Structure prediction request, 516 residues.
Amino acid sequence: MTTNPSLSIITLMTLLMCLTPTLIKSEESIDVLLPISLNLTVLTDPFSISAASRDFGNITDVNPGAVLCPSTPAEVAHFSYDSESTTSSPGFKVAARGQGHSLRGQASAPGGVVVNMTCLAKTAKPAAVVVLADGTYADVAAGAMWVEVLEAALARGVSPVTFTDYLYLSVGGTLSNAGIGGQVFRHGPQISNVHELDVITGKGDMVTCSPKLNPELFYGVLGGLGQFGIITRARIALEHAPTRAKWIRILYSDFSAFTRDQERLISMANDLRVDFLEGQLMMSNGIVDTSFFPLSDQTRVVSLVNDHRIIYVLEVAKYYDTTTLPIIEQVIDRLTRTLGITSEFMFVQDVPYFDFLNRVRNEEDKLRSIGLWEVPHPWLNMFVPRSRILDFHEGVIKGLLLNQTATSGVTLFYPTNRKKWNNLMSAMIPNEDVFYVIGFLQSAGGSHNFEELENLNDRIINFCDNSGIKIKEYLMHYTRKEDWIKHFGPKWNDFSRRKMMFDPEKLLSPGQDIFS
Ligand code: FAD
Prediction:
């Protein structure tokens, strides 16, 4: 293991004296107790505490004792357990927080220390994102957001290959989950596109890891829900960047045709292969967002939804640049002929590559402007095995969702390939070659009552359990240990063993509620 000897600067005794939750009262008391040479920025003012106690989910409210705004990785390491010590652990918990876009307090540390990873990104030298001269990878401070990685890479004509739908998430935050979106079927999740990580374990060791160097930590941390260490740097794979995207939405009234075409598209390997594939549902009991479609077609789209009750929207993108421009129209033409799509149900936008990847930002602006961004978000995300997708559709989409008086938010629905995931990593997916990503991205507020939405989520999970549909939840939050054991299934033993190896005092990411 590559460890940094300077990490023993702070002894466990100092930690016990300075940082037990009861002693973290004000900046003044921290300054008095911490060795001056450390010069740590530890915030305990009400504003900092309140900001760190909430997240995007707007469901939980968990106060930390303090917020650390580190300027070097070594400062983060001071807050970990000193493994050389013979005395017991300091007792307070530590959670890294990227953008706090968790849903149910996963980045919280009750009474402990929340480490604001954006501080580290701001002070990273020479920059938060450093693109290698040949453009093959970028070294990124884990607190940087994906939008910053993209901007820095595009300035050099390159780009990461796989993205979340929303780019204002931290690199460390998505790598702790998986980082999925419409490129996953082709390139795998973000955790499959990392070459190397710097991690500070729960024992205070600063470790560089990769598939060859300390692989146990590397694979554990990817999708590891922050349990084994705090990622401070990630080496992200890059490729040549296109400049524009043909962004296409195709409407289906028939579920079988919709999924057949989705599955066909993710299995293509020739020049017809698309670069991005997702899908979503438009339902007559929900708000039908027609903003993608030309003004002249919007009424027709609404009528289609009302007539059929559900319209399935297949969403693909094909990237291009000046070299591929002459053939792009032909490729799209061949693609639609292959699928047998008629032009009246197909809509195309031609947009800059960056704008395509940053498309959810517009939705955020719209929701913020009408006060519907900072509301409770009881989102339910899951992976459903392909073999049961028809049963899922009948039971959940038609049986439960369509029978609601009104649905809220967006429902994502698209298949992806298992072969692009590495089973050594901590992230869990169904045990089938193809599985579907389903996201019920519901918002409470307006006419939607939080309890009703939670109740719907429970009924969805119960339906799957009772019908034997072996889903895996994503971005989940369980409070019972048996649910975690069930979630990790055959990986639970490895997951617990890695916890003992890298964070034996169980200090890290307590908000996930796995080992507390
Ligand atoms: P935080 O909420 O700050 O942290 C999440 C977890 O990771 C916590 O347990 C935290 O302790 C841990 N953590 C954070 N940083 C580090 C670090 N450096 N080292 C170790 N552990 C760390 N996800 C997708 O996969 N695909 C999507 O398309 C997608 N779209 C989204 C859209 C929106 C609008 C939102 C709000 C979320 C979306 N997500 C998506 C979910 C998102 O990926 C996760 O919530 C992710 O954790 C958010 O990153 P964050 O920086 O806000 O993490």
In short: The first helix runs from residue 12 to 19. The first strand starts at residue 42 and ends at 43. The chain is about 35% helix and 20% strand. The radius of gyration is 23 Å.
